[in-house]
Structure formats: C-alpha cells, structure tokens
Protein 1
Amino acid sequence: MHPAARVAGVRSGVLRRAAQRGAWAAAGRVPRPGAAVRLERLHTSVRCADSIYALASGPPPCGVSVLRISGAEAALVYAALCPGAPALVPRRAALRTLRHPTTREVLDTALVLFFPRPHSYTGEDVLELHVHGSPAVVRDTLLAVGAVDPAALRPAQPGEFTRRAFEQGRMDLTSCEALDALLRAETSTQRRLALQTGGGRQAQLYHALRADLLEAMVRVEAMLDFSDEDGIDDALWAPVRDTVDRVRTQIRRAMPDGRPAVSEAIAHGTQLVLYGRPNAGKSLLLNRLVRREAAIVSPEAGTTRDVVQAALELHGFRVQLSDTAGLRTGASGIEQQGIARTEAHVRDADLALLVCDAGEVCRELGGVPPCGATQVSARGADALGRLPGDELLLVVNKMDTVRDAPAPVPVDDGVACHVWQVSALHDTGVDALLADLGAMLAARHAADLREPPLVTEARHAHLLGGVLAALDRCVACAEDATLVAEELRHAAYLVGQITGETLGADEVLGAIFARFCIGK
C-alpha cells in the first residue's frame, strides 16, 4: 500500500471511531463530560494505539470469570455491550445485561466496573466484566468485545496489561518481577518472599543508589565545566569518593557473595535426592513421601533406570524429590547410564538421602544406629554406598525386617551422620522424616525468613556486579575526571536497567513480560 493511502486509511478510521463515539454519546449511551465519569481518554504519558482485552482470571469452567479491557476503547466497549445503560460510577460495581454489539443477542448478566485513567492497574481506562464462568459465556463475550471495533481492539499478549502499567509509570520493573514471582509462588515461603520484595524496599534501594551515582556524576562534570584541567582536586574528590564507597558497601551488603541474597532453594525449590543400592526401597519411600504413586515399585532390583521426580511442600518450602537408579558395580549399559545420572544428581542436590536396607546396615555397621545425629565408621559408610558430601543423611529402610537390632559400637572419629529409621512398606517413621527435613530447611533459610533479602533476581545480581566493576574502575582512574564521570554515568545506567528507568532494549522487556499469563 502506498504510504499516503496508509495514512489516509488510518486517519479515516480515527475519524470514523470518533464520530461513532460522538453519536453514541449524543444518544445517552456513554456518560457525558461532567456526568458520573468521563470515559473519553484524551492524553497519556505513553500513547498505546490499540486497546486490549483478555480473560484476567482462571480458565473456565468456574464460578465467575473476569474479562479486562484496557485502553481508549473501554468506553466504546461499555456503550456497545450495554446499550442504553446508565453511566458508570468509577470503581463501583453495577449489574448490567451484556448484548452482542451487532446482533443484540443477550450474552450474560454481569457485574461491570470502570477504572478511569490514570488510577487503574494499567494507568489507562480499564473496564472489567465479571461474567458467569462458563466456557461459552467467556468465549462469546470475548468475541463480542473484539467485534465492537476490530481495528482498535485486539486480544492482549502475555503480560501486556502489566507492561502497560510499567510504561505508564504505575509500576517499576522490580515490582513487575515481584508480581511475576507472586503469580508463580507454589509455597507459603515463596508467597511471603514475593510480597516482601514487591513491598517497595527493593525499589527504594535501587532508586537511592541511582540518585547517589547521578549526584556524584554531576559533581564531576561540574569540575570539568569550570576547570581547565582534567584532574580532580582532592577537596572536590572527597565527597565523590565517599559516595562511591557508600554505594559499593550497600551493594556488597545486599549480595555478600556476589549472587542473589535469596537462595535458589527458596525461589525455585530444594533439590532432594534419594540414592542407594538397588532394592533398598527408594521408589516406595518416594511414594510415601509425596503420598501418591509417583514411581513404579517392583521387587526386581534395578527397576529404576532413570530419575523419577515429584514435588512436595515441607514447612512452606518447595521440594523437588528425585528417585534415582540403584548404585552397584557390574551394571549393564543402560543401567550404568542411570547410575551416572544418579551420581550427577547427588552432586547437584541440596540434600541427598542415602537409603539403605536395614539388614545391610546391620552387616556393615554392626547394628542400626539410633535416630538423630551420630557418627558411623567411614569404612561402613563407604560400604553402604555413600557418595561424597558434607554430612551423611542415612535413611534405614525396611526396619520391619529386623528385630531387636543392636546399636553399633560408638566411634569418635567417624563420619558425621543423621539417621532415620523407617519402614516404607508399613508407612512408619515417614512422618518423622518429613518433619525433620522441614526443620532442616527452615534452619538453613532462617536468615532469609527473618530479614527479607533485597537482591532476589539473577538479573539484578548481574547488573549490580557491573555497577561494582564500574565503580572499581572509577576509583582506579580517579586522576582523570572525564573517565570518572563516564564510569559513574555507566554505573547509574546499569542501576536504572534494574528498575526500568534506563532500559533501551525492547528484548529485555519482552523476555520479562512474556513470563506472565495473558490476562495479566
């Protein structure tokens, strides 16, 4: 299409929609200026050409489904679907009959709410339709919304409502990421962490860091503007150096080891692996732990040749539980591959439980160790199939097969060990095992739970690492004001990338918001 024709077509569409809205307003089908609410949108800090709509609640069937429309056409949708209805009062629910905009067929009876810009989730005019949650009602109502004006209304992309909130200044990028974490939270701990990080402490830290860096940069650039030399006077450098040191200290305190302060175990789950000899009862124990048939149980040794995984929640922590192939020598090719995977999973695990047959434990250790913390001989632990690790977590299974087993002879210089006695077959001792594992997780992450961490995203940690590097270079080139100003500017730019104030690449935003569901 010729550019002039394209421009003419766009202008024609805009004029047509404006005339249509004016005709409906004259007929009393949308509120007039000065009435309960003015629905026509005139200006915004960021102009989004299209209005968008989507299902903003869970998939039907359900009791109630929420359909969200955001943009300048929200008024048009209300007028078209509720012809002749009274004006809406902002943020107050009203019962309305929804009709198809062309056929006038009744679609549903719904609660309708209007949130005028800029005091809405997206910062735009937002219309919400709370309809009955049947698949047919939701589908037909969404089709009706799109039919109001196909040139101006389109289905939302994943995360687009939240992206518009970001672009309109309603949220910064750290708040968007915290919201994403909240929507994905599967455990109570993940929920608390997401709410804490989204409460504003992160944003306050990053905004303060950026403000300090910009102030220091302005000081240095002022020196350049009013001095004939590139060097920095000691008296003028002192406050700049103080700012640099303060920012570096704050960043290092927020992520002491250069990584996000919150562990991956909280954010993404603890990796817990069951390993041991074939036929030790690992698969049945996994089923008991997760309270369902997640793994195949067979009396034949070597049945499990690949890693079987299942999730559970312990004391508010998400745990990814893995049942692995039994460890033994002389295994076949396929089984040997499974053993190699077992060893890799144990190396990468947060917790690894060595599951042993009680009879074998009696033979190798001279008895069954008592439950709790103890020590066992290194030779016996190796004979049971222990893989390298800080502490041996030993689950003595099949306790129903031994009677009056003696305790082994105590050792003072052996391997630190924590012992549980269970019978997966009879489901005894399993609850105690779960309780102790939950207590271990709570103890490991007690500091994170007491004081919510400030740096929770790997993206933030990577950018803050760049800030520290820029500030180190800044100190190293302190005699050259031009280089100092440039490093301070770069450091401030990197902090701004965390909050979204200086994002230049649309791919970064796309990657973040693509994680959201369509209705968010």
Note: Residues 265-444 form a domain with the Rossmann fold fold (CATH 3.40.50.300).
Protein 2
Amino acid sequence: MRSLFYYLAVPAILLSACQSGAVNETAQTTTAYAEAADSIAFPNDMALLHSPSRKRVRSADVRCRVNNVLQATSLLEHTVSGMNGMIVESSIRNEYGATRDMPYTRDSLKRVRLYTPTASLTLRIPVSGLDSVVHLLTGTAAFIEYRTLREQDKTLDYLSNALRNNETPATVKPDKKNTALDIATYEDIRKDRKIDRQIANLGIQDDTHYATFSVELFQPAAADVVTIVHPGQIIRPAFGKEFSSALLNGLDVCRSILLFFVRLWPFLLLLLAGWIGYKKLKNLRF
C-alpha cells in the first residue's frame, strides 16, 4: 500500500512543480513585456529621422475595383496569414440595385436583380511587409479609386510617457492639509496614470511593429437571374369555377341593367305621356 502511494505521489509532485514553473515563467514574461514600455535605452541614434529606433507608425487605405471580389479577398487573407499577420475584420456583402420581373412562360417569370459585390477588410501586417501587400493589391486591381499611405512618428509621445514613468515620485506624508486617505487616493491616481502611460507605450510598440491596412473592394455590377412562379397563375381558379363565376357575373350585369331601367320609370312615364299628348294634338289639327 505504501509503495502504491509512493508511485502515485511522486508524479503528482513533479506535475505540480512543472505547473508552478510555467506560471512563474509566464509571470516573468508578462512583467518584462510591461517594463519594456518604460525603456528609454535605444540602440540607435534617435536624432536621425530614419533611425530604426524611432517609433514610426505606418498605415494604408486602398479602395479599388477588382474582377472578382471573393478571389481578391481570399488572396489578401492567405497572404497576410502567411506573413504572421492578423485579419482584424473581413466582410463580404452585396449591394442590390433595381429588380425587374419579366414574362417567361405561361406560369413563370424571370426575375432579374442587379447587385454589386463588395468587401471590407482591416488587416494587421508586419510593417516590413506592408509595401509588398499594397503592391500586390494595386497590381491586380482593375481600377484604383484611391490609395493612401501614412507614416506617423510617435517617438516623442513614447519618450514623454517613458520619462514620466521612470521619474521617482516625491514622498508625500500626512499633515494638516493632507490626511492619510487623501494620500492613498493620490497614490492610486498616480498608479493608474502610470499604467495608462505604459499601456499607451505598449500600443505604440505594437503599432510600430504591425501596420494597419484598410481595404475596400468592389467589382462591376452583375445580374442575378432566377425563374420564379407567376403569382397570377397560382391564384387563378380552375376552368369550371371560372366559367360559373363568369356566368354569374353576366347575370349580375343583366340584373343591374334591368334595375337601372326600373329606376327610370318616372322618366319613361313622362315620355309616354308626352308622346300621347303629341298624338292627340296632331289629330286635332287634321
């Protein structure tokens, strides 16, 4: 029994030790990543405008027409994934135009609907590969509506945050004007602002390493033609019912005409009286 307990306990202890080591290593990596946001040790001369150590943020926007939106979108996605980039957003949709129904057969119609396929992509690309991806897209485009390249220097913003975080804060002690609660509140605010500056610098570093590429694609309008059932033929009754309905409708017409003349009996009576009077006057003259 003791030997069995021994054989079970030893692997459990080793597994626990491995997990503890992995947690410690992850914590150290996270700490080093956060501390890098406050580093002001640059390996190259910062005075040079094109120094590799400067924090230059690149981005690009392109809107163009392609022959096939789906193929162009897939090409961009595969290219960016192969460069260890990230597809932030990729959306394909159709913008619909006019729709028209045209006669086709006795009981069917041809429905023609115009549509324009479009795509919208937001890509994060390693900055060294941005130009290659832009040239790949513009080289396959049939028409370029616009192409915009941007490069912003965030070096001074990065240095401002790093120098403030590296500055040793003054020690504040309680006195008549500042209580211990006021000092604790001040320390919390100072720590929060330091964290905000660290996060801002980490964002600058990420933007320096990965460029943002916004793409809008569209292709010439196409027509979607489908055969649909003629609604009028579906709701049309059978011949027997339609014949009986027509017969009844004819009887209704006759009834309406008869009732119309019946309603005119006063005028008919006056017309008859006038005709009789005219006959009598004519006989008296002769």
Note: Residues 2-35 form the longest helix (34 residues).
Protein 3
Amino acid sequence: GVILLYSLFIRNTQKIAFLFDSIENDDYTFRFIGEGDKYDKLLNNSLNRIKRVLENTRNDIIEHEKYYEHILNNVETGIVIADSTGNIYQTNQAALKLLGMSVFTHVQQLKNIDKELINIFKQTQNGDKRQISFCNERGTVTLSMRTSEVVIRQNRRLIIALNDINNELDERETESWIRLIRILTHEIMNAITPITSLSESLLTIYREKNDNIYKGLEAIHTTGIGLISFVESYRELTRIPLPRQAVFEVQQFLTRMIRLSSPEMHTPIINLSVQPADLLLYADENLISQVVLNLIKNALHASQNGEAILIKAYNNDEGEVIIEICDNGCGIPDEIAPHIFIPFFTTKESGSGIGLSIARQIMRLHGGSISLIRNTPSFHTVFRLIFD
C-alpha cells in the first residue's frame, strides 16, 4: 500500500511539474487525459482547468497588447520607451517616421542622424519639455519632446513623447508674414494710388506748358505705377485660393512643366524619372504647377554652365508622393539657405523674393511640405515636395 501511495504521489508530482514546465515555456498544446480512477480523473481535469485558465489569461493579455499597440501605432505623437542607459524597449510607427528610422533599439543609433540627439535622449528626465531640431532626408525637422516616468517592477522607464511642430511653426510664420504684407500693401496703396492718379491728371495739364514740370510729373507717375505693380506682386502671397484637388498623372504633368519652363533648345538638359510610370497625385494641378515651374526655373538659373537637371517623382515607404527637383548648379551658400522661404528675401537683382514663400504656402495648404536638401552625394541642390 505504501509503495502504491508513493508511486501515485510521484506520478501526480510529475504531472504538476510537467504543467509548470510547459507554462514556463509558453506551451499550452498539452492536455491531461481523463483516465484512471475517479481521483486520477479529478486531478487531470483540475490540471486541465488550470491550463485553460492560464491559457485564456495569456490570450487576453496578447489581445490587449495587440489592441494597445494598434492604438499606439495610429496616433500622430511619437512614443519612445527607454531606460537611463539608452536601451529602447518600445517605439511606435510615428516615432520611427519622425526620426527617419526603421528600427530603434538603442540611442546610439541616433548618431546616424545627429550625435547631439544621443546626449539629449540619455540626459532627459521626468518632466522635461524641450524643442529639438535636426536634419534628415525630409529637410530640417523640429520636434517638441516631453518626458514622463513610470516604474514597472522596480525598473524605471522613461516615456518620451515626440511631436512634429514644423508645420505649426511654418504656419505661424506664414500667417505673421501675410498679416504684415496685408497691412503694408494696404497702407502703401492708400498712399500711392492718389499720387499716381493726381500725377496722371497733371500730366494732361502740363503736357505742352512746361517741359521740366512735365518730365518731373512723368517720373512721379511712372514710379507710382511701378510701385503699385511691385505691391500687387506681394499681394499674391495673401490671395492664394484654397486647393481644388483632383487626381492627375504625375508623368504627364511633369512633362508639361518641362516643356513650359525650357522652350529653348540651348537650355540645360532636364531628365525626368517617374516611378512607377503611372504614379498619381491628388492635388490642385494649377497651384502645384506654380510651385514646380518656379523650382525648375530656379534650377535652370543656377545651371548657367549647362549642368543637367533631374526631376524625380516616386512613392516613399510611407506611401507619400515625393517630387524632387535636383541640380548641380552654383548651389545655395550656408548663410543664405535658412532664409530662402522668407518673403521678400532674394539674391536675384530682379527677383521679388516671394516665389519660394508662395511655394511653401501652397504646399502647406495641401497638407504637404517643401524642403531644401543640400550637398547630397549626387546633387548640390535638391528641392523636395512631400505630399502626405
């Protein structure tokens, strides 16, 4: 009897040990067969019930993790969960996109973007709020960074939230310029229009009476007309209509833009690459044509020595449509590059300084962006249009 009890104890202990070993290995494929006497059946059924409870709990946890991961990957805020040593435990898709990375497991990977980011991520603490900027293939990126802390099983974790504030900054800057331009053009037009009108009337009176007075009035009138025309050109920045978007073929569109911008045979060669060939864009074709024509003309102007120009259009990994105008012309100096999208800024003798400002405003109205990328491996200057 003792031997029977001992063997029964050993057998049942082995079953329980097997149950725990399987659970530790995340293996729930086993099942105890309900055979033997009623006590064996009771034990086997009880072990199977324990297995089912634990399996259901595990499945619930997995489902909840998938649910929360899905939510996390569908928010626009980038989330990075790290520790104080630089290990990255989790990131969502928004964070990877903002940082321009496909995988992020340690802060040392940030050295490929900007070495200063490594120190920023390592030194950030609970409650920190700051603004960070760096350059990547999308141009200059400005992010707001907020850090909070959570303790899980006595392990300290930092939750870093990243938000792209480029568009917000661009929008505020553009709106400020538009308000200023409206005020200036209104005041200038109010002052110049009566002078121009009066000088025109006086011209008819002094046409044959006094040659010196007539010439002076003519100079005043001509200057006034020129100033009115000058002011009207800046009003364009405040009169951009809302986009009337429709789908059109990028290949045909860019081919037409090339024909319009380079009618003469001696202009630099413009090569076109569209991948896929049937690439489509949902935008206001008339407004985007203003942007592309201006960029092509700028590239032609920079390529005075006949350097070939390349126009590329493609889909990036996020499914966005990208159009790039690339040239190897004279390039844009360091001291000028930060100012090129500011209204009134120009390096051309006859330039108005609003072409790129209008381009940025049009792209913003489309929910996209325009950026300058300099000194790439293949080109001195690349203007990139991104359509979200």
Note: The mean pLDDT is 82.
Protein 4
Amino acid sequence: MMNDSELITPEVLIPRLGDQLVKMDLLTEAQLQQALAYQRQQAAKNQPCLLGQAAVELNFLDRPTLDRAVTEQIVRLRSALEDANRNLELRVQLRTTELEEALRKLSDLNQLKANFVANVSHELRTPLTHIRGYLELLQTESLGGLNADQKKALEVSLRSSNRLQALIDDLILFSLASRGELTLQLRPVDLNRAISLVAARATPKATERSLTLAMEIGSNLPDVQADEEKLSWVLAQLLDNAIKFTPPGGKVTLNVTREEKMALVSVTDTGIGIPAERLKEVFEPFHQLDSSATRRYGGTGLGLALVRQIVEAHGSVIEIHSRPEQGTIVSFPLVFSLKNE
C-alpha cells in the first residue's frame, strides 16, 4: 500500500497523465494500456499506485524522465491558468466599462425625462391658469347669469381643472425631486393643525365612498421639524390613496403617537391590500401594480414615489406593511423640533 508521502507527489496534479506521456513520445499506446492494467492489478491487491509509478516499475521510463515530464506539464498548466486569469480580468474590466456606460446613459435618459416632464408641466400650467380664471369668472356670474344646467356643467369643468392642476403640480414636484432640486423649508410644525386641515379636505371624499375617516392623535404632542406644505401634501396623498383603495364600509385611520424624540405618523386602511412580493413596486414612479388597477382606480402612479422622496428628504424612512384583502399600514417618523427641548 502506498503511504501518504508517496501519494503526495507532483504527479497527482496532472490530469490524464498517460495521454500526455503518449503525446510526448515517452510511452507508446500499448505501453500506456499495459501500465493502466498494471495499475488496476495493484489496486486489486490493495496496493494502489499512480500511473507514472506504474510505468517506472514496468521499466517503460525512468524516474528522472517522469519527473521532467510532470514538471513540464505543471509549467504548462500554470501558464494556461495565468492566461485564463488575465483573460478573465480583461472580460471583467470590459463588462464593468459597459455597465458604467449603460448606467451613464440611463442617468442621462432619466435627466432628459425629468427635464421634459418639467418643461411640459410648466407649459401646461400657463394655459390652465387662463382656463381656470375664466371658469371662476363664469362661476361668479361676472360674465352673465347661468341656468341650472350651465352651473352643473361648470362645476364638472372646475373639478376637472382642479384635478389637472394637481397633476401638473405633482409632475413639477417629481421633476424637481428627480433632478435633486427638491428643497425643504424646515421649521416647527403643529401636527394637530396640519392633520386637521388635511383631514377636512379628505372627509368629503371618504363620505362619498361611505368610509369612516378617523384621526387618532396623541395628546400634548410637541411640534415636529418639517416643511409644513410638503408634509401636508404627503399626508393628503396617503389619505387619498387609502380612501381610493378601500371598499365602501371600510375605515381609514390617521394615527400619530409619540416615540421618544419622534412622532410616528401612520395611515391605516381596511382596503384591498398588496401582496408581500409586490410591496416595493408601489414606490416606483409612474407605476401601478396592474393594468386593471389603473383602469379601475386611476392615477399616475406618482403619489407614493413622491411621498417616499419627500419623507426621505426629511431624513426619515417610510415603511409599508400590507396583507391582501385585509388592508395596508404606511408609516414614517418625524423628529420633534429643537425648540421643544
């Protein structure tokens, strides 16, 4: 039986050594077959030996010749490995360059998209302002009296112009955020006041859909440090989204609790919910979870994307938890104003 020192030999590093010895004209094919047969015989006797050792014991070649052949093959293998490593490094470098170029192009396209959205939105804002101005003149009957049918048609036109104005404002806000130009006017904000104003605007829509809209706000909450206008927009978007996706008879709750030096704001609904594997998708801009939802519920898919950007601009993190057919909870913390300390 071969001992450990005999097994630890350079020969074990060479794959298909017999074929290599034949190619080097150190063995004939017949000698190789005899050496293989001898190797099998030794193994059957529980005295295994390597192929090169078998050839030496059969006097087909001497030990120095075998060692030179093995060394030569090791050198070739090492050279091949070094070449493979160099080729791999070159391929990795090339692929990295390609990915960097693709990322640059994607960044440029995103910038072009943001610029286009901003330009179009600003171009739409001016004529819409004129349209709204004349609609308001008609509503006040400054241009003459209106009959009941005309007043009803005017109300529909005003609601549509308000929706269009809100969409344009969202697009402009999105373009600013996409270009890193979103600015905040941070100051102490009374959450009770901000929430009351937002809730008052959301109540008619909740009532229209036969929903219960509840506010649960902790007592004696200090002011938070925030941009009041953008925070109000975030709260309005979250309430609007919850109302939109909650069936009649459901409930939407805006809750604020105190957690150490922060106020935890959350909006909870008993709506249709979102599958766990698709939760991250809701924050993608211009994205709805499926086409049927787009047709049924409408919307541009910008709301939650902007909500996340504004919340993160405040140095906070937004979280969403949801279960299909049970509802959704969206929450984020806000730090209290330093003036409270």
Note: Residues 101 and 231 are 37 Å apart (CA to CA).
